[in-house]
Amino acid sequence: MKLSNYFLPILKENPSEAKIKSHQLMLRAGMIRQSASGIYSWLPMGFKVLKNIEQIVREEQNKAGAIELLMPTIQSADIWKESGRYDDYGKEMLRISDRHERDLLYGPTNEELITQIFRDNIKSYKNLPLMLYHIQWKFRDEIRPRFGVMRCREFLMKDTYSFDVDKHTAEFSYKKMFLSYLKTFQKFELNAIPMKAETGPIGGDLSHEFIILADTGESEVFLDKNLLDIDVNEVDYSEKNINEIIERFSKFYSATDEKHDVNEFEKNVSKENQLRTKGIEIGHIFYFGDKYSKSMKALVNNKEGKNINPQMGSYGIGVSRLPAAIIEAKYNGTFMKWPKTVTPFKVAIINLGKNGDEADQKSNEIYQNLINANLDPILDDTSENPSSKFKNFDLIGIPYQIIIGSKLKKDEFEFKEIGEEKLILSKEEVINRLKEIYNIDK
Ligand code: P5A
Question: What is the mean pLDDT of residues 373-391?
Fold first, then answer.
């Protein structure tokens, strides 16, 4: 993509409404624009990041054995009346009526709808265990939407639902998702810590939130500092090790504010290891047994020929919250550096030349070579001055840059990874290095 042809409305100053750095960056780097309170449009670069995140979440769900489908955003109120949540949900639910005055709603979550799909189509234990998921927009009329896409009203969630024949296998489904979440967040270079959590309107008695520590987080959390030393990169994530991995995390104290038990914290965590801090909730998993399958009369035939209500769990990831969470973790107020799995473009070419000169020709040539090598480049071919080009790219956060000025020889290119020393490489070396970084076959 050439910047002169792209739609990237960069703002020079921090907008006054943005209180935290992720919101500032997303507005300044032209990723999002608010269209109504807590409702955002995703501009092209923000949308690319969102799609990359969505794709990684999808791949990890598929690896864990979950199957993708797509449920609508609009649901019938009838199923919510069956489960009893239509009244419970209160003002957070956006209620709509159609031209026939039928009650509809914009789904804040999908436990009811998936239970309806299940009960209409699955009758036997032979089809279990079953894990279904979708990635779909949700609406919650939050009382205080704030911090941009961090807490908004319309947001993209990945939600998975598990169905099992008994408690024992349901617990295994829960653990599988627990593990899959650790793997997913690791792909975003995020250190997500699982914490015992409250179940709120979803229900059930077993729940974990996945939290990244950040001063700007909205959740107050308590944990044993030992948890910070678990290097998730070293963990072998094969399924047979699930119990061992979960034990590694659960042997240390961690809880959100609502679940915090002062006595247990004091008893089990030494003074110097006690950490009380703030965090951002990027995922939340629940086991709620037959809460929905019973109230909505979903039945399967078990091995003994008896009809039973399947055991269920639900598992959410805040897909549209993740770009903001990643920025909170990776942006220092001047430089942003996207993880290479998420970056909107794989490499930036900063052309410091002028129309038709040698640097300009070099830039166009390597731009074409990078496209041919599937290295999705963005070429800054605008007439902005060099210092504002550099400033913009510090903000945009593409992790690799090729800077092309007039000083270097014909086959010399300045190659820079954000935060690292510049290197002088030949064109072939630049391309090979990038292919290696992004695992692109020669
Ligand atoms: C689990 C999947 C659920 O809704 N039902 C289906 C369960 N859980 S949850 O914790 O309420 O939400 C899951 C994740 O969605 C993100 N999230 C939000 N993101 C942006 N703005 C919001 N207002 C918002 N509310 C929830 C969080 O990442 C949460 O963990």
Answer: 96
**160, exposed or middle or buried, with CB in 10 Å at 0-12, 13-18, 19+?**
buried
* 206 and 311 Cβ atoms separated by less than 8 Å: no
Q: Which amino acid is at 267?
A: K
Domain 7-330 has CATH 3.30.930.10: yes
Which residue's CA is the nearest one to ligand 1's atom 24? 151
Which numeric CATH code is attached to 347-437?
3.40.50.800
**Tell me, what's the pLDDT at 153?**
98
**CA 199 to CA 430: how far, in whole Å?**
50
- pLDDT on residue 314: 98
Phi, psi of 260 (to 5 degrees): -65, 135
Whole-number Å distance, alpha carbon 318 to ligand 1 midpoint, is 6
Can you give the pTM of this predicted structure?
0.96
Nearest CA among 373, 368, 375, 364 for reference residue 400? 375
Residue 128 clears pLDDT 60, i.e. is over it: yes
Average pLDDT of the segment spanning 297-321: 97
Burial of residue 413 (number of CB atoms within 10 Å: 0-12, 13-18, 19+): buried
Pocket test for ligand 1, best of 26, 114, 321 (most atoms within 8 A of CB): 321
Any ligand 1 atom below 6 A from CB of 140: yes
- CATH 3.30.930.10 boundaries in the chain: 7-330
Q: Is residue 144 pLDDT above 70, yes or no?
A: yes
pLDDT band per the 50, 70, 90 thresholds, residue 216? confident
Enumerate the H helices of 100-222 as residue ranges.
Answer: 111-121, 167-187
Q: What is the CA(167)–ligand 1 centre distance, in A?
A: 24
Ligand 1 site, residue 323, Cβ cutoff 6 A: no
